[in-house]
Amino acid sequence: MATIWESWLDEVMPDLPGAPAAALVKNAIRNAATEFCDRTWVWRVPHPAPISVIAGTAEYAFVPPANTKVVKAHRVWYDGLEIAPQTPENLSSLYAQWTTETGTPLYFTQRDPEKLLLIPIPEADLANAITAEIAIKPARAAVDIETTIYEKYLEEIAYGAKARMFAMKAKPWSDAKLAAFNLGMFDQAIGRAKVQAAKGHTRARLRVKPHFY
After folding, report:
1. Residues 6 or more apart whose Cβ sits within 8 Å of residue 108
2. Beta-bridge partners for 104
3. Beta bridge partners of 133
């Protein structure tokens, strides 16, 4: 289920004097929700479809659900076995030339949130080889967000929206002190949510088949 941005208006509008346009507030809500998801990785979904690999090709593009953008790959499986994330620096210590190493992929890294690099580079074609759990955020054109995010983080995202509204210059609702207060509350909420999400999604060891919860 999805919840539209207007659902936040009753949480945000009463604190804003001067009756700002609902469309302006809705935009602040969407931007706050986008930042919240971008910084916390709390919105995680299975990648909509498996991805087939081609021998000699390392990079593969994600296709996230409609009106969302990929923040990062959270978990990735190759041919049913989970592979581990690595930084380019760590890969350089594992392989003399990790950018050209071929074999069965054991690791993944990302230079671009929307794309995945397999290491070693697959040496054989394999249909539906890649499955993944991805962290996502609303796209600019999004009109709603997953209802579970709304239910769990209603007040937290409202702080972010109000911080943006209060920070506007020369408006009836402009207030630097309230902007700073709400921004502080928003940043604290992001810190807590990120820790809670990490605790709630502790990495399991390699599994024979992928499971998403």
Report:
1. 73, 76, 83, 84, 85, 86, 116, 117, 118, 119
2. none
3. 46, 75
pLDDT given at position 19: 83
Q: What is the pLDDT of residue 199?
A: 76
Q: Which residue ranges make up each domain of the chain? A: 2-42+138-200, 44-137
Residue 8: CB atoms within 10 A of its CB come to: 24
Q: What H or E segment, with its residue span, contains residue 162?
A: helix 147-166
Tell me the pLDDT tens digit for each residue of 145-155: 999 999 999 99
Side-chain half-sphere exposure of 106, counting CA atoms within 13 A: 8
Burial 76-110 (b: 16+ CB within 10 A, else e): bbbeeebbeebeeeebeeeeeebeebeeebebbbb
Q: What angle do CA 90, 93, 99 make, to 5 degrees?
A: 80
- Longest distance between any two alpha carbons in the chain, whole Å: 63
Mean pLDDT of the 171-196 span: 97
Place of tokens 């929700």: 33
Task: Give pTM, 2 decimals.
Answer: 0.89
202 pLDDT exceeds 50? no
